[in-house]
Amino acid sequence: MPKAAPAALYVQDTTSSYERVFNRVMENVVGISQADAAEILDIVKRSGSDGLNMAGYFEQVYAGYFRGRDWTWTEYDDWAVIFAEMGAFPSHWTDIDLPQKAKTRTEELLGQRMPDIRAFLDAQGVAYSPRTGKVQLVALAEHTAGLEASALWQAVLERRRHDAELAVERRPRLLYDLLMRTIAYRAKSERDVERAKAAGVKRFDLMLAIEADRPFVEVARKKSPSAVPPFYPNDFTLLRPIIENGESGTR
Predict the structure, then answer these.
(1) What does pTM read for this prediction?
(2) Is residue 170 in a domain?
(3) Separation of CA 214 from chain center
(4) Which residues of the chain have pLDDT under 50?
């Protein structure tokens, strides 16, 4: 008798799940062409993972297709509106538009190197003990004449400019991180559900990271009953298969 064909490799199922989820999610990304999306998918595939090994593609894809480009993910925008209308946000929701708190003068000086702070104080003839800590040195520097004309303060200003550049990139960087993680973990959830159903599982329980997030998850499931987690960006909900008597999973 001819031998039965071997079962499909696990990685093949993994790839197909990732590709399906990737294509669905990328339909809601504005500013990335279909051609670029296809190239991104190829890069992820070449990383030899199902998307969960982000080290194999994360930075390369961001630098080549997202950094400096005018793009947005409308699914994120839609959820932001829905949760705002609910008057509350999920516990792990990431607000990509939340401005970072401005640093105080003291915090800026604390971010400088100890040798540079000491060099400024020495140049100004300020005495201090060799055992004086950084906090105390900064306090001395803050009240020393000539600070704003010093090399130390120029270093502070340079750090400000650097932080400002990072702030400009903060929103697209956070959004990209949420996008790629959502795709990867939805693909994993979809694959896990398919394998469980193939084993005879018919029902799944929700496993919420925080019970207070249940109203948000219920809204998401009502919006799309066939959806798998993460139901919204940065959702940590899991689906637990329910093994009932008589199902193949109990053997």
Answers:
(1) 0.73
(2) no
(3) 22
(4) 1-14, 248-251
Name the residue range of residue 203's domain.
17-94+175-242
205's enclosing H/E stretch is strand 203-207
Domain termination residue (choose one: 163, 194, 209): 163
Dump pLDDT digits (tens) for 78-100: 999 999 999 999 999 999 987 77
Cα–Cα dist 51/19, whole Å: 10
What sign has the CA pseudo-torsion 16, 22, 25, 26?
negative
User: For residue 100, is it within any domain?
Assistant: no
Shared domain for 32 and 79, answered yes or no, is yes
99 in a structural domain: no
Position 247 in a domain = no
Element spanning 30, H or E: strand 29-30
**Is 114:137 a contact under the CB 8 Å cutoff?**
yes
pLDDT for position 251: 41
Cα–Cα distance for residue pair 12/124, rounded to 1 Å: 68
Instruction: Assign 73 to helix, strand or coil.
Output: strand
